[in-house]
Design goal:
Length: 164
Amino acid sequence: MNAKRVMPLKSDGYRKAIGDLLKKFRVKGLRMTPQRMVIFETLLAATDHPSCEDLLSRLRPEMPSLSLDTVYRTVGTLERAGVLRKVATSEGAHRFDANLAPHHHFVCDACQRIWDFTWESFDKLPTPELLRDGRDIFVRQAELKGICPECLKSTRPVRTPTGN
Ligand SMILES: [Zn+2]
Ligand SMILES: [Zn+2]
């Protein structure tokens, strides 16, 4: 037996997502670039479903030449590859989710952050009668809106329009 390998710092979920990303790029004949990888990794690490503007402000410190246009194009490529989802929000700006496992969303109406959560009893609910007419339903996702604990504590929104 070889010496035990050093445990990777990144989680199983992370490695699986990167493996999935590379496979989907290969299948679609898309080229992987460091920029595409960094943007995907940033989305993967984010827990708030960032917009393109959020991604730009997070990456600018390490990639000063990155433009909003490039972020938009890269996110579009990642979406075409099927490794992230667009999240519909009432504020209109597109938000992105690299968590492809079935889950639901809580949206804070003040800071507009979006949290993922699982909801087993919801998932088990039968489809409403009205929709049982031969429709093909492939996403069952709930969106709950409210105010997050942080915003409830403060009187002004936590989020600022552009980054730090
Ligand atoms: Zn909030
Ligand atoms: Zn999500």
